[in-house]
Specification:
By secondary structure, the chain is α/β, with parallel strands linked by helices. The chain folds into two domains: 5-43 and 113-178 and 284-327, FAD/NAD(P)-binding domain; 56-108 and 182-281, Polyamine Oxidase, Chain A, domain 2 (Alpha-Beta Complex). The protein is built from eight helices and 20 strands. It binds flavin-adenine dinucleotide and nicotinamide-adenine-dinucleotide. InterPro entries: Amino_oxidase, Bac_renal, FAD/NAD-bd_sf.
Length: 328
Protein backbone atom coordinates (compact mmCIF):
# COMPACT_ATOMS: atom_id res chain seq x y z
CA UNK A 1 0.00 0.00 0.00
CA UNK A 2 1.30 3.48 -0.90
CA UNK A 3 1.99 5.89 1.95
CA UNK A 4 -0.33 8.93 1.96
CA UNK A 5 0.67 12.46 0.98
CA UNK A 6 0.99 14.88 3.92
CA UNK A 7 -0.40 18.39 3.50
CA UNK A 8 0.52 21.00 6.11
CA UNK A 9 -2.10 23.76 6.19
CA UNK A 10 -5.86 23.58 5.62
CA UNK A 11 -6.26 27.02 4.08
CA UNK A 12 -7.66 27.22 0.58
CA UNK A 13 -4.27 26.34 -1.00
CA UNK A 14 -3.82 23.14 1.03
CA UNK A 15 -7.45 22.16 0.46
CA UNK A 16 -7.19 22.83 -3.26
CA UNK A 17 -4.15 20.51 -3.48
CA UNK A 18 -5.89 17.91 -1.29
CA UNK A 19 -8.98 17.88 -3.52
CA UNK A 20 -6.95 17.47 -6.69
CA UNK A 21 -4.84 14.63 -5.27
CA UNK A 22 -7.83 12.87 -3.73
CA UNK A 23 -9.69 13.11 -7.04
CA UNK A 24 -6.67 11.48 -8.74
CA UNK A 25 -6.94 8.52 -6.35
CA UNK A 26 -4.26 9.39 -3.79
CA UNK A 27 -4.62 9.27 -0.03
CA UNK A 28 -3.91 12.55 1.72
CA UNK A 29 -3.54 13.44 5.40
CA UNK A 30 -3.86 17.06 6.49
CA UNK A 31 -2.41 18.99 9.44
CA UNK A 32 -3.27 22.40 10.83
CA UNK A 33 -2.15 24.25 13.92
CA UNK A 34 -5.62 25.85 14.25
CA UNK A 35 -8.76 24.27 15.64
CA UNK A 36 -10.48 24.36 12.27
CA UNK A 37 -9.87 24.72 8.55
CA UNK A 38 -9.84 27.80 6.34
CA UNK A 39 -6.78 29.73 7.54
CA UNK A 40 -7.21 33.31 6.39
CA UNK A 41 -10.59 32.39 4.86
CA UNK A 42 -11.95 31.20 8.20
CA UNK A 43 -14.87 32.76 10.10
CA UNK A 44 -14.93 33.35 13.82
CA UNK A 45 -17.95 32.44 15.91
CA UNK A 46 -18.59 35.18 18.46
CA UNK A 47 -21.28 36.52 20.80
CA UNK A 48 -22.28 38.79 17.89
CA UNK A 49 -22.64 35.87 15.45
CA UNK A 50 -20.24 34.54 12.86
CA UNK A 51 -17.69 37.05 11.55
CA UNK A 52 -15.50 36.92 8.44
CA UNK A 53 -12.37 38.48 9.95
CA UNK A 54 -10.00 37.54 7.12
CA UNK A 55 -10.90 37.35 3.43
CA UNK A 56 -13.99 39.49 2.84
CA UNK A 57 -14.96 38.28 -0.60
CA UNK A 58 -13.19 36.88 -3.62
CA UNK A 59 -13.15 37.47 -7.33
CA UNK A 60 -12.63 34.84 -10.04
CA UNK A 61 -10.68 35.81 -13.15
CA UNK A 62 -8.84 32.64 -14.17
CA UNK A 63 -11.07 30.29 -16.19
CA UNK A 64 -10.26 27.30 -13.92
CA UNK A 65 -11.23 29.20 -10.81
CA UNK A 66 -14.37 30.60 -12.46
CA UNK A 67 -15.45 27.01 -13.16
CA UNK A 68 -14.80 25.75 -9.65
CA UNK A 69 -16.57 28.72 -8.04
CA UNK A 70 -19.57 27.93 -10.25
CA UNK A 71 -19.54 24.40 -8.78
CA UNK A 72 -19.33 25.82 -5.25
CA UNK A 73 -22.34 27.98 -6.03
CA UNK A 74 -24.29 25.01 -7.42
CA UNK A 75 -23.57 23.10 -4.21
CA UNK A 76 -24.72 26.04 -2.05
CA UNK A 77 -21.30 26.79 -0.55
CA UNK A 78 -20.77 30.17 -2.22
CA UNK A 79 -23.01 33.04 -3.29
CA UNK A 80 -22.48 36.33 -5.02
CA UNK A 81 -22.32 39.46 -2.89
CA UNK A 82 -23.29 42.76 -4.50
CA UNK A 83 -22.77 45.38 -1.79
CA UNK A 84 -23.44 49.09 -2.10
CA UNK A 85 -19.80 50.04 -2.52
CA UNK A 86 -18.26 53.31 -1.49
CA UNK A 87 -14.85 54.88 -1.67
CA UNK A 88 -13.37 57.15 0.96
CA UNK A 89 -10.54 59.47 -0.02
CA UNK A 90 -9.20 62.35 2.06
CA UNK A 91 -12.20 61.90 4.32
CA UNK A 92 -14.70 62.22 1.44
CA UNK A 93 -17.16 59.34 1.19
CA UNK A 94 -18.63 58.72 -2.27
CA UNK A 95 -20.56 55.89 -3.95
CA UNK A 96 -18.28 53.71 -6.07
CA UNK A 97 -20.42 51.13 -7.88
CA UNK A 98 -18.86 48.73 -10.37
CA UNK A 99 -19.65 45.63 -12.42
CA UNK A 100 -17.22 43.23 -10.69
CA UNK A 101 -18.73 39.90 -9.58
CA UNK A 102 -17.74 39.23 -5.95
CA UNK A 103 -18.19 35.93 -4.12
CA UNK A 104 -18.51 34.95 -0.45
CA UNK A 105 -18.88 31.65 1.38
CA UNK A 106 -22.48 31.11 2.50
CA UNK A 107 -23.72 31.38 5.19
CA UNK A 108 -20.17 32.24 6.29
CA UNK A 109 -16.76 32.27 4.61
CA UNK A 110 -15.69 29.06 6.36
CA UNK A 111 -18.51 27.13 4.63
CA UNK A 112 -16.20 26.67 1.66
CA UNK A 113 -13.21 25.21 3.48
CA UNK A 114 -15.45 23.03 5.62
CA UNK A 115 -17.10 21.58 2.51
CA UNK A 116 -13.79 21.11 0.68
CA UNK A 117 -12.31 19.29 3.65
CA UNK A 118 -15.32 16.95 3.81
CA UNK A 119 -14.27 13.64 5.32
CA UNK A 120 -10.57 13.86 4.45
CA UNK A 121 -8.35 12.79 7.38
CA UNK A 122 -7.11 15.83 9.30
CA UNK A 123 -5.21 16.63 12.52
CA UNK A 124 -6.26 19.97 14.02
CA UNK A 125 -4.42 21.83 16.81
CA UNK A 126 -1.30 20.17 15.43
CA UNK A 127 1.57 22.57 14.74
CA UNK A 128 4.20 20.89 12.59
CA UNK A 129 7.69 21.96 13.59
CA UNK A 130 9.86 19.74 11.40
CA UNK A 131 9.63 17.89 8.10
CA UNK A 132 12.30 15.27 7.60
CA UNK A 133 13.13 12.40 5.31
CA UNK A 134 14.18 9.02 6.66
CA UNK A 135 15.07 6.42 4.01
CA UNK A 136 12.50 6.59 1.26
CA UNK A 137 9.72 8.26 3.22
CA UNK A 138 8.86 11.53 4.93
CA UNK A 139 7.96 12.09 8.59
CA UNK A 140 6.57 15.11 10.40
CA UNK A 141 7.30 16.21 13.94
CA UNK A 142 4.71 18.29 15.83
CA UNK A 143 5.09 20.82 18.65
CA UNK A 144 3.89 18.25 21.23
CA UNK A 145 6.73 15.90 20.30
CA UNK A 146 4.64 13.44 18.29
CA UNK A 147 5.86 12.16 14.98
CA UNK A 148 3.60 11.42 12.03
CA UNK A 149 4.27 9.30 8.97
CA UNK A 150 5.45 7.66 6.85
CA UNK A 151 4.39 9.83 3.91
CA UNK A 152 5.32 9.51 0.24
CA UNK A 153 5.37 13.30 -0.36
CA UNK A 154 4.86 16.49 1.65
CA UNK A 155 3.08 19.65 0.56
CA UNK A 156 3.71 22.70 2.74
CA UNK A 157 0.70 25.03 2.36
CA UNK A 158 1.38 27.66 5.02
CA UNK A 159 2.26 31.37 4.70
CA UNK A 160 5.85 31.83 3.44
CA UNK A 161 7.50 32.78 6.77
CA UNK A 162 6.11 29.60 8.34
CA UNK A 163 6.93 27.52 5.24
CA UNK A 164 10.64 28.37 5.12
CA UNK A 165 11.43 26.44 8.34
CA UNK A 166 9.39 23.44 7.20
CA UNK A 167 11.25 23.37 3.86
CA UNK A 168 14.72 23.05 5.48
CA UNK A 169 15.30 19.70 3.69
CA UNK A 170 15.24 21.58 0.37
CA UNK A 171 17.42 24.67 1.01
CA UNK A 172 16.59 26.21 -2.39
CA UNK A 173 12.86 26.17 -1.68
CA UNK A 174 13.43 27.34 1.90
CA UNK A 175 15.46 30.27 0.55
CA UNK A 176 12.71 31.31 -1.87
CA UNK A 177 10.07 31.16 0.89
CA UNK A 178 12.34 33.12 3.26
CA UNK A 179 12.65 35.90 0.65
CA UNK A 180 8.90 36.59 0.70
CA UNK A 181 7.81 39.53 2.83
CA UNK A 182 4.29 39.25 4.21
CA UNK A 183 2.42 42.25 5.59
CA UNK A 184 0.21 42.21 8.69
CA UNK A 185 -3.42 43.34 9.02
CA UNK A 186 -5.25 44.32 12.18
CA UNK A 187 -8.94 43.33 11.90
CA UNK A 188 -11.62 44.68 14.23
CA UNK A 189 -15.29 43.70 14.49
CA UNK A 190 -17.86 46.07 15.98
CA UNK A 191 -21.51 45.22 16.73
CA UNK A 192 -24.29 47.78 17.18
CA UNK A 193 -27.66 46.97 18.74
CA UNK A 194 -29.27 49.79 16.76
CA UNK A 195 -28.39 49.56 13.05
CA UNK A 196 -26.23 52.39 11.74
CA UNK A 197 -28.10 54.86 9.56
CA UNK A 198 -25.98 54.47 6.42
CA UNK A 199 -26.23 52.92 2.96
CA UNK A 200 -22.58 51.83 3.02
CA UNK A 201 -22.13 48.04 2.78
CA UNK A 202 -18.49 47.94 1.71
CA UNK A 203 -15.96 50.74 1.47
CA UNK A 204 -12.45 51.00 -0.03
CA UNK A 205 -10.51 53.56 1.99
CA UNK A 206 -7.45 55.72 1.35
CA UNK A 207 -5.72 58.25 3.62
CA UNK A 208 -6.86 56.56 6.84
CA UNK A 209 -5.63 53.94 9.29
CA UNK A 210 -8.36 51.78 7.67
CA UNK A 211 -8.32 50.41 4.14
CA UNK A 212 -11.61 48.50 4.13
CA UNK A 213 -14.89 48.20 6.06
CA UNK A 214 -17.82 45.86 5.41
CA UNK A 215 -21.30 45.46 6.80
CA UNK A 216 -21.70 41.81 7.67
CA UNK A 217 -25.45 41.60 7.26
CA UNK A 218 -25.27 42.71 3.62
CA UNK A 219 -23.66 39.34 2.80
CA UNK A 220 -25.97 36.42 1.95
CA UNK A 221 -27.05 34.18 4.83
CA UNK A 222 -25.68 36.34 7.64
CA UNK A 223 -27.67 37.32 10.75
CA UNK A 224 -29.43 40.66 10.56
CA UNK A 225 -28.98 41.49 14.24
CA UNK A 226 -26.86 42.93 15.73
CA UNK A 227 -25.49 45.18 13.00
CA UNK A 228 -21.89 43.88 12.78
CA UNK A 229 -19.06 45.53 10.84
CA UNK A 230 -15.59 44.26 10.00
CA UNK A 231 -12.83 46.88 9.78
CA UNK A 232 -9.38 46.23 8.28
CA UNK A 233 -6.43 48.48 8.99
CA UNK A 234 -4.02 49.22 6.17
CA UNK A 235 -0.75 47.27 5.98
CA UNK A 236 1.22 50.40 6.87
CA UNK A 237 -0.88 51.18 9.97
CA UNK A 238 -0.87 47.53 11.03
CA UNK A 239 2.92 47.31 10.69
CA UNK A 240 3.41 50.49 12.70
CA UNK A 241 1.03 49.32 15.44
CA UNK A 242 1.84 45.63 15.45
CA UNK A 243 2.29 45.28 19.20
CA UNK A 244 -0.48 47.59 20.36
CA UNK A 245 -2.91 46.12 22.93
CA UNK A 246 -6.15 44.89 21.34
CA UNK A 247 -8.27 47.41 23.31
CA UNK A 248 -6.13 50.27 21.98
CA UNK A 249 -6.39 48.97 18.40
CA UNK A 250 -10.19 48.79 18.77
CA UNK A 251 -10.27 52.34 20.12
CA UNK A 252 -8.18 53.72 17.22
CA UNK A 253 -10.03 51.89 14.45
CA UNK A 254 -13.46 52.58 15.96
CA UNK A 255 -12.48 56.26 15.91
CA UNK A 256 -11.33 56.11 12.28
CA UNK A 257 -14.58 54.30 11.34
CA UNK A 258 -16.75 56.94 13.10
CA UNK A 259 -14.88 59.67 11.20
CA UNK A 260 -15.39 58.18 7.74
CA UNK A 261 -18.81 56.53 7.81
CA UNK A 262 -20.82 59.75 7.75
CA UNK A 263 -23.50 58.91 10.34
CA UNK A 264 -23.76 58.78 14.13
CA UNK A 265 -21.79 55.82 15.53
CA UNK A 266 -22.88 54.84 19.05
CA UNK A 267 -20.76 52.81 21.47
CA UNK A 268 -20.60 49.24 20.15
CA UNK A 269 -22.24 46.47 22.18
CA UNK A 270 -19.48 44.05 21.17
CA UNK A 271 -15.92 44.45 19.97
CA UNK A 272 -13.18 42.07 18.91
CA UNK A 273 -9.69 42.50 17.48
CA UNK A 274 -7.59 39.98 15.60
CA UNK A 275 -4.04 40.43 14.36
CA UNK A 276 -3.15 38.67 11.13
CA UNK A 277 0.64 38.60 11.23
CA UNK A 278 1.01 37.19 7.70
CA UNK A 279 -2.02 38.70 5.99
CA UNK A 280 -0.72 39.31 2.47
CA UNK A 281 2.50 39.05 0.48
CA UNK A 282 4.06 42.47 -0.13
CA UNK A 283 4.12 41.66 -3.86
CA UNK A 284 2.68 39.12 -6.29
CA UNK A 285 4.83 36.35 -7.82
CA UNK A 286 4.53 34.05 -10.83
CA UNK A 287 5.83 30.87 -9.24
CA UNK A 288 2.63 28.81 -9.27
CA UNK A 289 4.03 26.47 -6.63
CA UNK A 290 7.52 25.49 -5.48
CA UNK A 291 8.75 21.95 -6.06
CA UNK A 292 11.70 19.68 -5.45
CA UNK A 293 10.09 16.83 -7.34
CA UNK A 294 12.97 14.38 -6.87
CA UNK A 295 12.79 14.82 -3.12
CA UNK A 296 8.98 14.85 -3.11
CA UNK A 297 8.64 18.19 -1.31
CA UNK A 298 6.30 20.96 -2.51
CA UNK A 299 5.11 24.36 -1.30
CA UNK A 300 2.04 26.35 -2.25
CA UNK A 301 0.01 29.30 -1.01
CA UNK A 302 -1.18 32.74 -2.04
CA UNK A 303 2.40 34.02 -1.78
CA UNK A 304 3.38 31.93 -4.83
CA UNK A 305 0.94 33.90 -7.03
CA UNK A 306 -1.38 36.78 -6.04
CA UNK A 307 -2.18 37.38 -2.37
CA UNK A 308 -5.82 36.54 -2.95
CA UNK A 309 -8.14 33.57 -2.52
CA UNK A 310 -7.96 32.85 -6.24
CA UNK A 311 -4.13 32.88 -6.18
CA UNK A 312 -4.06 30.49 -3.23
CA UNK A 313 -6.48 28.05 -4.89
CA UNK A 314 -4.53 28.12 -8.16
CA UNK A 315 -1.26 27.56 -6.31
CA UNK A 316 -2.69 24.45 -4.60
CA UNK A 317 -3.77 23.14 -8.01
CA UNK A 318 -0.28 23.77 -9.36
CA UNK A 319 1.42 21.88 -6.50
CA UNK A 320 -0.89 18.90 -7.07
CA UNK A 321 -0.39 18.98 -10.84
CA UNK A 322 3.39 18.98 -10.50
CA UNK A 323 3.32 16.11 -8.02
CA UNK A 324 1.03 14.05 -10.26
CA UNK A 325 3.14 14.78 -13.35
CA UNK A 326 6.24 13.58 -11.54
CA UNK A 327 4.50 10.35 -10.51
CA UNK A 328 3.37 9.75 -14.09
P1 LIG B 1 -3.77 30.31 4.75
O1 LIG B 1 -5.22 30.59 4.60
O2 LIG B 1 -2.98 31.23 5.63
O3 LIG B 1 -3.61 28.80 5.25
C1 LIG B 1 -2.45 28.32 5.85
C2 LIG B 1 -2.81 27.35 6.97
O4 LIG B 1 -1.60 26.80 7.47
C3 LIG B 1 -3.51 28.01 8.15
O5 LIG B 1 -4.73 27.36 8.41
C4 LIG B 1 -2.52 27.85 9.31
O6 LIG B 1 -3.16 27.62 10.55
C5 LIG B 1 -1.72 26.62 8.86
N1 LIG B 1 -0.37 26.56 9.41
C6 LIG B 1 0.61 27.50 9.41
N2 LIG B 1 1.74 27.03 9.97
C7 LIG B 1 1.49 25.75 10.33
C8 LIG B 1 2.27 24.74 10.96
N3 LIG B 1 3.54 24.94 11.32
N4 LIG B 1 1.69 23.54 11.19
C9 LIG B 1 0.39 23.30 10.84
N5 LIG B 1 -0.38 24.23 10.25
C10 LIG B 1 0.16 25.44 9.99
N6 LIG B 1 -8.25 37.56 -0.42
C11 LIG B 1 -9.20 37.85 -1.32
O7 LIG B 1 -9.22 37.24 -2.41
N7 LIG B 1 -10.16 38.78 -1.05
C12 LIG B 1 -10.19 39.47 0.12
O8 LIG B 1 -11.11 40.26 0.37
C13 LIG B 1 -9.18 39.21 1.07
N8 LIG B 1 -9.14 39.88 2.23
C14 LIG B 1 -8.25 39.52 3.19
C15 LIG B 1 -8.28 40.17 4.41
C16 LIG B 1 -7.42 39.78 5.44
C17 LIG B 1 -7.46 40.47 6.76
C18 LIG B 1 -6.52 38.70 5.22
C19 LIG B 1 -5.64 38.24 6.34
C20 LIG B 1 -6.45 38.09 3.99
C21 LIG B 1 -7.31 38.50 2.96
N9 LIG B 1 -7.28 37.92 1.70
C22 LIG B 1 -8.23 38.22 0.77
C23 LIG B 1 -6.24 36.96 1.34
C24 LIG B 1 -6.75 35.51 1.41
O9 LIG B 1 -7.39 35.31 2.64
C25 LIG B 1 -5.54 34.60 1.27
O10 LIG B 1 -4.88 34.89 0.05
C26 LIG B 1 -5.88 33.11 1.25
O11 LIG B 1 -6.91 32.79 2.15
C27 LIG B 1 -4.59 32.36 1.60
O12 LIG B 1 -4.79 30.97 1.60
P2 LIG B 1 -3.58 29.96 1.88
O13 LIG B 1 -4.14 28.61 1.88
O14 LIG B 1 -2.46 30.30 0.96
O15 LIG B 1 -3.04 30.35 3.33
P1 LIG C 1 -11.41 43.78 -6.29
O1 LIG C 1 -11.31 43.77 -7.77
O2 LIG C 1 -12.73 44.06 -5.69
O3 LIG C 1 -10.41 44.88 -5.68
C1 LIG C 1 -9.10 45.15 -6.06
C2 LIG C 1 -8.75 46.58 -5.67
O4 LIG C 1 -9.33 47.48 -6.60
C3 LIG C 1 -9.29 47.03 -4.31
O5 LIG C 1 -8.36 46.81 -3.26
C4 LIG C 1 -9.54 48.49 -4.51
O6 LIG C 1 -8.35 49.22 -4.27
C5 LIG C 1 -9.87 48.62 -5.96
N1 LIG C 1 -11.33 48.64 -6.21
C6 LIG C 1 -12.06 47.61 -6.72
N2 LIG C 1 -13.35 47.99 -6.86
C7 LIG C 1 -13.44 49.24 -6.43
C8 LIG C 1 -14.51 50.16 -6.31
N3 LIG C 1 -15.77 49.85 -6.68
N4 LIG C 1 -14.24 51.40 -5.84
C9 LIG C 1 -12.98 51.74 -5.48
N5 LIG C 1 -11.93 50.91 -5.56
C10 LIG C 1 -12.14 49.68 -6.03
O7 LIG C 1 -10.92 42.40 -5.66
P2 LIG C 1 -9.63 41.50 -5.85
O8 LIG C 1 -8.79 41.95 -6.99
O9 LIG C 1 -10.09 40.11 -5.80
O10 LIG C 1 -8.83 41.86 -4.53
C11 LIG C 1 -9.16 41.31 -3.31
C12 LIG C 1 -9.29 42.30 -2.21
O11 LIG C 1 -8.75 41.68 -1.06
C13 LIG C 1 -8.54 43.61 -2.38
O12 LIG C 1 -9.37 44.63 -1.93
C14 LIG C 1 -7.37 43.45 -1.43
O13 LIG C 1 -6.95 44.70 -0.88
C15 LIG C 1 -7.98 42.60 -0.36
N6 LIG C 1 -6.97 41.88 0.44
C16 LIG C 1 -6.77 42.30 1.68
C17 LIG C 1 -5.81 41.68 2.47
C18 LIG C 1 -5.58 42.16 3.84
O14 LIG C 1 -4.72 41.63 4.53
N7 LIG C 1 -6.30 43.16 4.33
C19 LIG C 1 -5.08 40.61 1.97
C20 LIG C 1 -5.31 40.19 0.66
C21 LIG C 1 -6.28 40.83 -0.11
Amino acid sequence: MNAPIAIIGTGIAGLSAAQALHAAGHDVELFDKSRGSGGRMASKRSDAGSLDLGAQYFTARDRRFVEVVQQWQNRGWAETWAPELYNSQAGQLSPSPDEQVRWVGAPRMSAISRALLGALPVHFSCRITEVFRGGSHWSLQDADGNSHGPFSHVIVATPAPQASALLACAPKLAGVAASVVMEPTWAVALAFDTPLDTRVEGCFIQDSPLDWVARNRSKPGRDNHPDTWVLHASSAWSRQHLDLAKETVIEHLHGAFAELIGCAVPAPSFTLAHRWLYARPAQAHQWGALADADLGLYACGDWCLSGRVEGAWLSGQDAARRLLEHLA
